Amino acid sequence: MKSWSLKVKFGFYAAILTMIALLTGVGILLPTIHFRQLADLDRRMEQNAGEFFRDLENFQGAPMNPRHPLSAKFIPLSLQNRLLILKGPEGQLLYESPGLNGRILNQSRVGFKTIELDGEKLRVGAFERSPFSLQVGASMSPLQDLQNTILIGLAYAGLITTVVVFIGGFLLGKYAIRPVSDLTKSAESISINRLDDRLPIPESRDEIYRLSLVLNEAFDRLKKAYSAATRFSADASHQLKTPIAVLRLGLEELRANPDIDDSLHSEVDSLLHQTRRLTALINDLLLLAQADAGRLQLEQETVDLEPLINSAVDDLETLTYDKEITIEKSISHSLKVNVDRRRLNLALQVLIENAAKYTPEGGKIRVLATIENNLLCLDIGNTGKRLSKKNAANIFERFRRGTDAGENVSGYGLGLNIAKTLLAAHGGDLRLLESDTNWVEFRLTIPAQN
């Protein structure tokens, strides 16, 4: 039920509540009807017994001696479908219904009780009027049949009512949560690029009104926090560029000094390498900060990517020359797109360098480029260890490293995020096509130039 919508849950709970109410009603109704039926049956048997006694006392031709057996012709019509036992003053049997065949009704005291005779339930009443005592037995099958009929009718009515209530609850739930659905749609439209958008405020001052105000206040706080973080990242990256540049210039001058010995020369080279890495990291962070702030400037022009991709493949051959890696390529002609050449080349280099880093020795890299449905599709795949589901799902997050490769590879985990950000700025996309075998493949897409 966790995955059910609120509309379905509302209908389901309403149906369950209705079913419980109906069962409670049935639990009260059936015993009430049953006791009312018993009371009516007892009253009729008492009336029939009184009529019988009066006939014995007043009917012309009735036996004068209460100790003589009674003929069946004296039994009233109202008692002929009952089981009767009539006894005289000393308890002698005066009459017994043929259906009894010597069986007893087992009711000696005046009053009523329910017994079971040969698997059949009987309602037995015992009556006395001097000098006679009478036992009357009536089958309870009609009562049980009526109970069963009522129960079946209530079952059908309950089923139909439950379905109707579920549908009605579903529709009412749909109507009730429509404002929440509208809020959800509005909230989904608020993104990094639309931080100024806010939820509509309903006119009625109900719970939805309050929720809209609270969410809008939360969006305001998020915007301020995001803007502050973006501004800090951009400012910090920009401010770090100058001291790093001065440090790098000083190290290069120190390295050019002919008076330093070889050991110090090697140490300076190592420091220069680290400053270059730090400069690259600062540039990457500055690029991402500009993109987050919506200040990434693109200098777009019509570019044929065929030579650009071929040049990238040449770089790939240089990066992998000592690993005996097989490189396959299939690049269509005239791959014209409207892009910022420098930015797109950066994204392309990220994918090329990743393929070179993560392809094991003796592996294979494949580069395919074509136009499909007015989209330039560039697929770059390579052999390598499979990615776990968790890492595959988060591979485009910032500072996410390819730890599944099981190797100590260089980088800070920003490359794929930068590539995806740059492609999104061009109206394109970068996604992971395959990663569940020993083959990892990415697809780069950009709208083609008509």
Question: TL;DR?
Answer:
It is built from nine helices and twelve strands. The protein has helices spanning 6-58, 141-176, 178-188, 207-256, 262-292, 305-319, 341-358, 389-393, 415-425, and strands spanning 83-87, 93-96, 111-117, 120-129, 132-139, 301-304, 326-331, 336-339, 364-372, 375-383, 429-434, 439-447.
Secondary-structure element series = HEEEEEHHHHEHEEHEEHHEE
Uncertain spans = none
| Alpha carbon gyration radius | 47 Å
Please state the structural category: alpha+beta
The overall average pLDDT, rounded, is: 81
Instruction: Kindly report the spatial arrangement of strands forming the biggest sheet.
Output: 2-1-5-4-3
Strand content: 15-25%
Q: Count the strands?
A: 12
Biggest β-sheet strands, sense, barrel: 5 strands, antiparallel
Shape: rod-shaped
Number of domains in the coordinates? Answer: 3
The helix fraction, in percent, is: 40-55%
CATH class of the largest domain: Alpha Beta
Going by CATH, the architecture of the largest domain would be 2-Layer Sandwich
CATH superfamily of the largest domain: Histidine kinase-like ATPase, C-terminal domain
Number of helices: 9
Beginning-to-end CA distance, first to last residue: 49 Å
CATH topology of the largest domain: Heat Shock Protein 90
Give a written overview of the molecule.
This protein is an alpha+beta fold and 450 residues long. The chain has three domains: 6-150, Beta-Lactamase, CATH 3.30.450.20; 207-292, Signal transduction histidine kinase, dimerisation/phosphotransfer (DHp) domain (Helix Hairpins, Orthogonal Bundle), CATH 1.10.287.130; 301-447, Histidine kinase-like ATPase, C-terminal domain (Heat Shock Protein 90), CATH 3.30.565. The chain is built from nine helices and twelve strands. It has helices spanning 6-58, 141-176, 178-188, 207-256, 262-292, 305-319, 341-358, 389-393, 415-425, and strands spanning 83-87, 93-96, 111-117, 120-129, 132-139, 301-304, 326-331, 336-339, 364-372, 375-383, 429-434, 439-447. The chain has a five-stranded antiparallel sheet. A five-stranded mixed sheet has the order 7-9-10-12-11, with helices on one face. A two-stranded antiparallel ribbon has the order 6-8. A hairpin with a 2-residue loop joins strand 9 (364-372) and strand 10 (375-383). Helix 4 (207-256) packs antiparallel against helix 5 (262-292) and helix 7 (341-358) packs antiparallel against helix 9. The longest helix has 53 residues, at 6-58. The mean pLDDT is 81.
